[in-house]
Amino acid sequence: MACASCSTKDGQPKGCKNNGTCGTDSCNKLTVFDWLSNMSLPNGEKPFDWVEVRYKNGRKEYYKNTENLTLSIGDIVATQAKAGHDIGMVTLTGELVRIQMKRKNISYNEEDTLKIYRKASQKDIDIWSSARDKEEPMKVRARQFAIDLKLQMKISDIEFQGDASKATFYYTAEDRVDFRELIKVFAREFRTRIEMKQVGFRQEASRLGGIGSCGRELCCSTWLTDFRSVSTSAARYQQLSLNPQKLAGQCGKLKCCLNYELDTYLDALKNFPKTDTKIHTEKGTAVCQKTDIFKGHMWYAYEGEWNHWHKITASQANEIIDLNKKNKKIASLEEYASELMEDTKVEFENVVGQDSLTRFDSLKSNNKRKNNKRKNNKNNRNSKRKRKPQNSKNATK
């Protein structure tokens, strides 16, 4: 993502001049805009002493500022890890951190909490940068080692700890994988502590990012943080074709956006009868063939006459079904379908409030006629002038 006004020169962002932490929330992935930053706290209130820190690919952790450091968004800090220290970027401070921790069910009253050591020095940043440069070539070699050991897994990403003392290998797999031998190979080749962490296919797509079929960046890598289960019934309720190539996202699973409008469709379908409910008439039994949720229409066809569909409204279908429950039948569906006959003729109106677009064409044709008329008159005059001397000469003779 990038701002419309953002551009880079020699690795430094231009435009907003905020070095990747702009207020439009566009330069960083899954960044929260601090809309409380310009508001002062009430008298006697102390600022919240927890800070949100972001690491590679949007991974976020929350740390306690025990040293009372003056931190702002964009600062590089050294944070406590299980062994050694890590390097990350501050992405949120103040009261919004309390709200984020509450939303993610993270307790800030525990004593054994992780802490922020200091602001990162130039030496810390150099070690961190050199470790980050090793990640891509290591990933290529790690994938080859997994292939040589014939393990059914995929190394999706590698993340070094800030002090370069540990490397975390993220992988995806369908089933349980015995990677004990693989860890030995990694430790022997890469000379560092190894941690293997399995992630789901949706989490892998969110970490790597990409462009969806809609033309926008993936929701999971920009703003979506919780992954709800998606089933094919969501596509059925929305009357989408069950084509796995169209319904699957970059992760190979069903698209998360199938759930966005599902609740609206479910509310609209409450007014529709079940599609497997048949309608009994004196003419015959009719079966539902199609529904239009937006217009509230349903199409029924008699058994044996599948090519002839009759359109009725959802309220009419419910009325007929209620009559069938009382052992009553209507004469035929044509009585209801005739009321829905619509005029398909489309009349276009001048909604712009201007003259006709053909006004120039008519003027052009009129000019042509005038020009042709002038040419004809001129030709007639010239012909008459040529004839007069001949007549006069013959008359003198």
Give the SSE map.
Elements: E1 8-9, E2 12-13, E3 50-54, E4 60-64, E5 76-80, E6 85-93, H1 95-103, E7 116-119, H2 122-133, H3 135-148, E8 154-160, E9 166-172, H4 180-190, E10 193-198, H5 201-208, H6 219-222, H7 232-237, H8 244-247, H9 262-269, E11 279-280, E12 285-292, E13 297-302, E14 309-313, H10 314-325, H11 334-337, H12 359-396
Description:
The protein has 397 residues and is an alpha+beta fold. Among the domains are: 1-31, no CATH class; 130-199, GMP Synthetase, Chain A, domain 3; 205-268, no CATH class; 279-340, no CATH class. 33% of the residues lie in helices and 18% in strands. It contains twelve helices and 14 strands. Helix 3 (135-148) crosses helix 4. The longest helix is centred in the C-terminal third of the chain and has 38 residues, at 359-396. It is extended and about 90 Å long.
